[in-house]
Amino acid sequence: MQPLRTLTSVALPWPAVNCDTDQIIPARYLQKPRADNFGHYLFADLRFNGNGNEIDTFLLNRPPFRHARIIVTGRNFGCGSSREHAVWALYDYGFRAVVAPSLGDIFANNCLKNGLVPVLLPEPVVHDLLDRIARDPDLELGIDLLAERIRLPDGTEHAFPIDPFAKECLVNGVDELGYTLSRADAITAFEQRHGMA
Amino acid sequence: MTGPNGLPATIFDKIWMNHLIESREDGQDLIYIDRHYIHDVTAPAFELLRQRSLAPRSPHLIFGTPDHYVPTHSREMTAINHPERRAMIDALMSDAASAGITVFPLGDRRQGIVHVVGPEQGLSLPGATIVCADSHTSTHGALGALAFGIGATEVGHVLATQSLWQKKPLNMRIRVEGQLPEGITAKDLILAVIAQIGVAGARGHAVEYAGPGIEALSMESRLTLCNMTIEAGGRVGFIAPDDTTFDYLAGRPYAPKGAEWDAAVAAWRELRSDPDAVFDREVTIDANVLAPMVTWGTTPEDALPITGVVPDPSTLADPEQRAAMAKSLAYMGLEPGTRLDGIAVDRVFIGSCTNGRIEDLRLAAHIVAGRQVASGVSAWVVPGSGLVKAQAEAEGLDRIFLKAGFEWRHPGCSMCLATNGDAVAPGERCASTSNRNFVGRQGPGARTHLMNPAMAAAAAVTGRLTDVRRLVEGH
Ligand code: SF4
Q1: Pocket around ligand 1: residues whose beta carbon is below 6 Å from it?
Q2: CA B274 / ligand 1 centre spacing (Å)
Q3: How many domains does chain A contain in total?
Q4: Angle at Cα A43 formed by Cα B416 and Cα A137, nearest 5°?
Q5: I want to staple B279 with a disulfide (CB 3.0 to 4.6 A). Which of B43, B173, B182, B410 is the partner?
């Protein structure tokens, strides 16, 4: 997971509502070793036909979206299966931020642990972004994680909420395990209080 | 028992407080984990651990069994002709062996789907915190536990620290008034709940199921109900422990014994939401009016009574919703207005962590007895565990299914998500007792209709989605 402070990129518009993690990465790729580039499996059944060739109507297969690092999507993105592979697929492909009105609970946690920034914005704002991208596919969105803001070229800005600890981890490219290991005494004390140790 | 500061508290608040190690300034709580289940998709988490030269902190609290990649036509590892799938099971076995973790391996009668095995072994207990790298971990809430699915990085965190940082979800209560009519199951109830509140209806909430309609449910029905909480977006779903819970747990291999058991039951009886506890959200369902439910679309909220018809997108005002429904119907190969009762199926799958327990197989066998699988239909029963399979065989259920033309398979996840190769072919329509009808879930292009086990049995013998009540005497 790479540190991230700011990011400017075109955005893949994916207006689907309730897009489940089975769509983001089909279950048959769960057996692949993490060393694989999971980006190859992202949206596999939507992106490739049965012969493994790209389906050219799928937006990710088209310029400029092929190089998008931000996805703008509908409510409850990443619902369903807990597979972290869904986040790995987005991350390995090159995505660093998901802009949505809401995310599946487990998916949201998985994002934070892998350097994928959840940018939660009110639904009308997300719809407006989708409209703007539809009019101008080359539109570049700027995400400033430190300032907790998303910026458009015309100067429009939207603040987004992000948990301070998660932000710290994303900005520095670290996960929280190191921190918890430093709290081992508190865990041991809990076990002793509850007669577990 | 009340919550902190003597304020009224929910069961969820109480279990959470009992497991709180410390809180962080940002509102995240470090929660102690009592029980951690692992299976054959947990390999990436062990890999993360190795990369950091860490080992599991409390191996005695971890239990595992292979389920997602096991073959269901054989119990031999050599029957898995796919090296990557075999590697997933091998990884579970070697990761567990090197850490001293108990695993119920392939060929052991206790092996099965992890969410069937945990309760069956008495490992899932009231008041406990339980996690597993699987969203259907909510199942174990049926025992009055706080159980939820986590991702691979979180699994690594729990392995290394036996704890997890979480933001405490809000409290939600789903009250079920009345009683389920004869022949209506927990599966119909949860499909009706999801149809009412939507697939994101419980997002961010821990769901307590309560009311007379819940108290009357058997433990197995409660497991079915809590299992599908995640299909309403809730990670946690649970039921206050009561005599049904204690009767189910008594004498199970890992449940407390003797004086410890008595003390445990006394403590578990206290696990109730205080009468004046406040829920952030309340939903009420009338059980009396429920009918057998089937899904017609590609999310679990796309469910209707079997007496209904395929909905018509043109009646929807919102263009986004209209487009989504049209897409879903195109995938499912269904025309608006078609009666659900009568839609021809190619496959029937009875199994999964939702409906792969003995009660489910009895319900299905009851419908199948004396009938034949319709010609052209391929129908499978995949018991949820080796013990469920053995019990069914002791009761002669296997013979009923086999005589009717069903396949009687070995336990595992199987066609619920098709990762072991048991897949529904593209374009085929499957009546399934599993929990997800997502696009491609049972195999690329597969069309899934979710329903209860008796309904799936009815579909098998008629070759069509069928109101099972017609096949039962007295209706
Ligand atoms: S039976 Fe299906 S839902 Fe249950 S654990 Fe297995 S794959 Fe997941």
Answers
A1: B 67-68, 113, 115, 134, 136, 352-353, 413, 416-417, 434-435
A2: 34
A3: 1
A4: 150
A5: B173
pLDDT of the residue at B382: 98
pLDDT of A176 higher than 90: no
What's the whole-number average pLDDT of chain A? Answer: 95
Q: Find the CATH number of the domain harbouring A78.
A: 3.20.19.10
Distance from CA of B274 to the nearest CA of A (A): 23
What are the tens digits of pLDDT across the range B423-464?
Answer: 999 999 999 999 999 999 999 999 999 999 999 999 999 999
- pLDDT tens digits along A69-118: 999 999 999 999 999 999 999 999 999 999 999 999 999 999 999 999 99
Chain B residues close to A31, C-beta within 8 Å: 69, 82, 84-85, 87-88, 419
For chain B, which residues score pLDDT lower than 70? Answer: 1-5, 474-475
The CATH number for B294-469, chosen from 3.30.70.120, 3.30.499.10, 3.30.300.20, 3.30.70.141, is 3.30.499.10
**Domain housing A69:** 6-193
Contact flag A180-B440 (C-beta cutoff 8 Å): no
Residue ranges of the domains in chain B?
Answer: 9-283, 294-469
> Could you say which architecture CATH assigns to the domain B9-283?
2-Layer Sandwich (3.30)
Residue B320 is predicted with a pLDDT of 86
Q: Are residues A180 and B30, on separate chains, in Cβ contact within 8 Å?
A: yes
Pocket test for ligand 1, best of B413, B422, B430, B436 (most atoms within 8 A of CB): B413
Three-state secondary structure string covering chain B: CCCHHHCCCCHHHHHHHHCEEEECCCCEEEEECCEEEECCCCHHHHHHHHHCCCCCCCHHHEEECCCCCCCCCCCCHHHCCCHHHHHHHHHHHHHHHHHCCEECCCCCCCCECHHHHHHHCCCCCCCCEEEECCHHHHHHHHHCCEEEECCHHHHHHHHHHCEEEEECCEEEEEEEECCCCCCCCHHHHHHHHHHHHCCCCCCCEEEEEECHHHHCCCHHHHHHHHHHHHHHCCCEEEECCCHHHHHHHCCCCCCCCHHHHHHHHHHHHCCCCCCCCCCCEEEEEEHHHCCCEEECCCCCCCEEECCCECCCHHHCCCHHHHHHHHHHHHHHCCCCCCECCCCECCEEEECHHHHCCHHHHHHHHHHHCCCCCCCCCEEEECCCEHHHHHHHHHCCHHHHHHHHCCEECCCCCHHHCCCCCCCCCCCCEEEECCCCCCCCCCCCCCEEEECCHHHHHHHHHHCECCCHHHHCCCC
Mean per-residue pLDDT for A164-169? Answer: 90
ipTM of the complex: 0.90
pLDDT in tens, B58-91: 999 999 999 999 999 999 999 998 999 999 999 9
Q: What local confidence, expressed as pLDDT, does residue A175 receive?
A: 83
Q: Which helix (H) or strand (E) holds A169?
A: helix A164-172
